[in-house]
Amino acid sequence: MRRDQVTQCAVVFLSLCVAAARSFGEEAAQAIAVIPRPMKMEQRDGSFVVTATTRILVERNSTDVAAVGKYLANMLDRATGYPISMSDSDEVNAVKGAILLTRRGAKPDLSNEGYELTIVPDSIVVRAPKTAGLFYGVQTLRQLLPPAIERPSSATQKVAWTVPCAQIEDRPRFEWRGLLVDSARHFFPKESLKRFIDLMALYKFNTLQIHFTDDQSWTLQIDACPKLTEVGARGGPFAINGTWLGVGKGIGSGRCHTKDDVREIVQYAADRQITLVPEIEMPAHAASWLAAYPELLCTSSSKFPAPEVGTHGDDTKRVVWSAYRELCLGNEATYQMAEKILAELSEMFPGPYIHIGGDEASKFGWKHCDLCQAKMKAEGLKDERELQSYFIKRVGKFIESRGRMFVGWDEIMEGGLAPNAIVMSWRGVAPGQAAVKAGHTVVFSPTSHCYFDYTYENIPTEKVYSFEPLETLGPEEAKHVKGVQGNLWSEWIPDLNRLEYMGFPRACALAEVAWSAGEGRNWQDFRGRLKVHFARLDALNVNYCRETVPNADRKAPKQ
């Protein structure tokens, strides 16, 4: 071989060595990039290697723990191609060559969702007081594995399945860590919802609110009121922007979530420690409901001509515009039907919460409705705000009789609020702060930071990350803050592809706001970890945004 060839080969070999070393160094530096940031984390020397002989051990006689073990085994099987076995065990301490999932010996102060994760070269232990904590420990373990763990094994045969050694102790800051998907403006089938639930689980969200009904469509099967989907799934007489289309001209898809769909989604979410919160809008945003059951329109609406097609309605027509989207609160049939719907809702959704909306009621129709005015007189209500409060309290009392807690947007405080109501503060943080100071439980979801249907230009990921829900609140007031939620209203989100784009990476930032301690939050540190997670999102084929704002983005109204 000629000398220049030898030299060239040596240079190539040296370059490959440097590249390999750089790659190894980058992988090592990235290996500990966990989102949301754990409470305590210490990286140690060495790594655990997942091989064909790695076992998963779960505590004996616990179907819940076994389900978490099966979740982990399926993930490793799919990605590595190894026959990862799972078996029951009475072990409390680490077992060589095994990943142990146990609730025995867990620190009680870790709460229902906290966990310890101990990784040494020859074993891994995930320990938690409750099953939820084990699941979240598995999600952290998942994030410590290479991003290629998210791909099928055929695409990852050359990956070294190593986990850096570490000692992690972790628990969440808030009880409610939520996202909302609007399946009324654009319909999201169960497959899309399940995909979204998987992404939520990765980042330790535990609550998914599904907005099933609005002016444009009713998308949830209710056996007692079949016309809600037979007619209401095609929607009320309004376009997305509120323009009047005419009675019978709704824009809904005609699709709905059947009870079989709901059972499947509820179980899928529960297996990932996520509670589904159904939202049925009332008394406003009810145009699809009224399209199905026009007998619940305010009785005096016939005195006024309907708005012309293509108009929002001028001041003289706002009454009818209101009447076609707000339930008549003077009609006892309204309360009877609401109770039938809520009764079925409580049977379909085993979680503790039912959301009843309660927002953006103009109240114009009620002012001109004989039945509504008669109801106000009979109940001693001085104005339409108190009429709405009467409705909310009455409906809320029924929900509580079914063993559930009711949630509503912050307008439910108008006219007086039931003491057990949970307020979701969307019109900024001020309503939520006022509710907290009055002793009410609050979930913060302000348009300023948590409306992910707004463009990245309006709400960049850094702004989401800067949100501090406890700002200006004292220690006792802070106890009333249940958590935070990001909302994805679907006026301009037609499908899963766009949902992922608008949701991620902003959801990653909100996950850290919801889970991690407020002290020590650092954007530059998070940004570095987020860059690592882009590789994981790539492996999952998530259509996330890289903080560019395409011309197609539009700022959408709240509802």
Walk me through this protein's architecture.
The chain is an alpha/beta fold. It has a domain at 32-170: Chitobiase, domain 2. It has 19 helices and 17 strands. The protein has helices spanning 3-30, 63-80, 131-144, 190-202, 227-230, 259-270, 287-292, 318-323, 332-348, 364-367, 370-379, 384-401, 430-437, 447-450, 461-465, 475-478, 496-503, 506-515, 523-539; strands at 40-49, 55-59, 85-89, 98-102, 115-120, 123-127, 162-170, 176-182, 207-211, 213-214, 217-218, 275-282, 353-357, 405-409, 422-425, 441-444, 481-488. The strands form three sheets. It has an eight-stranded parallel beta barrel, surrounded by seven helices. Strand 10 (213-214) and strand 11 form a beta hairpin. Helix 4 (190-202) runs parallel beside helix 6 (259-270).
Write the layout of secondary structure elements.
Elements: H1 3-30, E1 40-49, E2 55-59, H2 63-80, E3 85-89, E4 98-102, E5 115-120, E6 123-127, H3 131-144, E7 162-170, E8 176-182, H4 190-202, E9 207-211, E10 213-214, E11 217-218, H5 227-230, H6 259-270, E12 275-282, H7 287-292, H8 318-323, H9 332-348, E13 353-357, H10 364-367, H11 370-379, H12 384-401, E14 405-409, E15 422-425, H13 430-437, E16 441-444, H14 447-450, H15 461-465, H16 475-478, E17 481-488, H17 496-503, H18 506-515, H19 523-539
Parallel strand pairs: 2-3, 2-4, 4-6, 8-9, 8-17, 9-12, 12-13, 13-14, 14-15, 15-16, 16-17
Antiparallel strand pairs: 1-7, 5-6, 5-7, 10-11
